[in-house]
């Protein structure tokens, strides 16, 4: 059931909310990791490179829709915190219509252009056919993936992080079973891994819908909740589209890196793929904390509990910075060996490149922690401008790093683009959080509003909430 995060110890609430979600994210990561491991061990390095080469383009297409769902859920969390059930259900009706329309558009556009996209990315000839077979299946299942992410985000918006975990455990196990069944039993090659992922996501979506219908009264949409009020759609798109746009901006940077890696050859693609899988697994608690902060901030903003927002952000930052420093040291010394789990026959050239990957990045994971925690916190306030600015700066830095540094330093240059991007994104986020928290506490000056990089809307919303609280 839902969890009200507008009362009680902020740090305790955030941690308790994060733990089930962290386990859920680990199982969700198994979708990708199972594909990578099983493909590498059963089909070889070229197949691994094929699956890895499409990661950035998957993130670009799916990230737009998944980011949109996360933005839509922010409004749900704010209305839950405000305890306005009618407005909450109306938000669900509007959001579902938006999600379905976006999913249909993306599915058609992506599946019809899959081959063109791979050629545009200069995918190596020896892996492009496998990459196409895998990617076109994933694109055909966009609807299942987006719907599951939206329903999971809605449950988390009302403070329920346990239910998505249960569904992910079941579907992750199913995904692994289907991987082996399709790849080995039916000899479907890398396409089998794609089918396994899509079917698992579809089952997870159905389970979420059944659970919500039977167990979560507050989320049961009535006929009167389906609205034609265009102001509602405008408000949801105002938050949701920039959210999705931010994901896409980040993904474009990943595409630039992937193009660079494709030019460097299959060994570089395989090494980067193996390394990024390990990095994603170990940085997952940072991402989880970010989602928890978004929900915590949104609920408390809706309830007008501004002092709790400041306390929660400080607590979240402290935990994540310590953790980020720790994983940096772990990856420096053990990253090469961890990457070996995804490298066929322990290829020494690939492992050497993986070791270089972690040697370059390990000191900068604290910057990544700031990005992953502060950006969702700002978005939880309904401020979509600052994260977009941070995303644009991140994109510019990553593209410059990938295209220019790789010319001089090869694989190392491509890797250097990540810390460069994290630094560029951190600057506006830190400045905005500092001034936004000041704005929520007192009357702002013109200088405060300018330096807060878009926090004027947040302040205006906070004034409205204060008036509503005073009236009640």
UniProtKB/TrEMBL annotation:
Subcellular location: Cell membrane
Residue spans crossing the bilayer: 47-75, 87-112, 132-152, 164-186, 192-212, 318-339, 359-378, 385-405, 420-437
Keywords recorded for this protein, A-Z: Antiport, Cell membrane, Ion transport, Membrane, Transmembrane, Transmembrane helix, Transport
Entry GO CC: plasma membrane
GO molecular function, one term: antiporter activity
Protein topology in the membrane: Multi-pass membrane protein
InterPro entries per the UniProt record, alphabetical: MATE_fam (IPR002528), MATE_MdtK (IPR050222), MdtK-like (IPR048279)
Keyword Cell membrane: yes
GO biological process, one term: monoatomic ion transport
NCBIfam families per record: matE
Family statement drawn from the similarity comment of this UniProt entry: Belongs to the multi antimicrobial extrusion (MATE) (TC 2.A.66.1) family.
Functional summary from the UniProt entry: Multidrug efflux pump.
Identification of the protein by name: Probable multidrug resistance protein NorM
Source organism: Halolactibacillus miurensis
């Amino acid at each position: 059931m839902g969890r009200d995060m507008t009362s009680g110890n902020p740090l305790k609430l955030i941690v308790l909310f994060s733990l089930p979600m962290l386990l859920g994210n680990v199982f969700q990561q198994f979708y990708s990791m199972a594909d990578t491991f099983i493909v590498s061990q059963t089909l070889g390095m070229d197949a691994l490179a094929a699956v890895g080469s499409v990661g950035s383009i998957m993130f670009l297409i799916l990230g737009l829709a998944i980011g949109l769902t996360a933005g839509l859920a922010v409004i749900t969390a704010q209305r839950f915190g405000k305890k306005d059930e009618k407005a909450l259900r109306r938000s669900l009706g509007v959001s579902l219509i938006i999600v379905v329309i976006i999913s249909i558009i993306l599915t058609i556009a992506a599946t019809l252009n899959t081959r063109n996209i791979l050629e545009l990315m200069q995918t190596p000839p020896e892996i492009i056919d496998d990459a196409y077979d895998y990617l076109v299946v994933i694109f055909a299942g966009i609807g299942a993936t987006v719907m599951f992410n939206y329903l999971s985000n809605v449950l988390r918006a009302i403070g329920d992080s346990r239910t998505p975990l249960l569904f992910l455990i079941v579907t992750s196990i199913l995904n692994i079973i289907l991987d082996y069944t399709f790849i080995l039993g039916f000899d479907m090659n890398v396409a089998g891994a794609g089918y396994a992922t899509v079917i698992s996501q579809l089952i997870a979506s159905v389970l979420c819908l059944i659970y919500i219908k039977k167990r979560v009264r507050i989320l049961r949409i009535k006929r009167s909740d389906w609205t034609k009020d265009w102001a509602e759609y405008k408000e949801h798109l105002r938050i949701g589209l920039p959210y999705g746009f931010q994901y896409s901006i980040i993904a474009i940077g990943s595409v630039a890196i992937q193009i660079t890696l494709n030019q460097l050859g299959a060994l570089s693609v395989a090494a980067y793929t193996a390394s990024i899988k390990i990095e994603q697994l170990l940085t997952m608690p940072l991402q989880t904390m970010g989602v928890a902060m978004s929900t915590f901030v949104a609920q408390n903003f809706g309830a007008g509990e501004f002092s709790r927002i400041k306390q929660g952000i400080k607590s979240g930052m402290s935990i994540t910075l310590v953790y980020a420093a720790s994983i940096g040291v772990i990856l420096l010394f053990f990253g090469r060996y961890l990457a070996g789990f995804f490298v066929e026959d322990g290829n020494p050239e690939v492992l050497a490149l993986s070791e270089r990957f972690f040697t370059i990045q390990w000191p900068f994971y604290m910057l990544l922690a700031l990005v992953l925690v502060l950006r969702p916190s700002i978005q939880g306030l309904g401020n979509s401008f600052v994260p977009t600015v941070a995303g644009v700066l991140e994109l510019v830095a990553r593209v410059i790093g990938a295209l220019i540094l790789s010319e001089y330093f090869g694989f190392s240059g491509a890797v250097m683009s990540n810390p460069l991007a994290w630094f560029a994104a951190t600057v506006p986020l830190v400045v905005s959080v500092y001034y936004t928290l000041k704005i929520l506490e007192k009357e702002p000056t013109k200088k405060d509003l300018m330096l807060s990089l878009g926090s004027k809307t947040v302040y205006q919303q906070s004034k409205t909430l204060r008036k509503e609280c005073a009236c009640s």
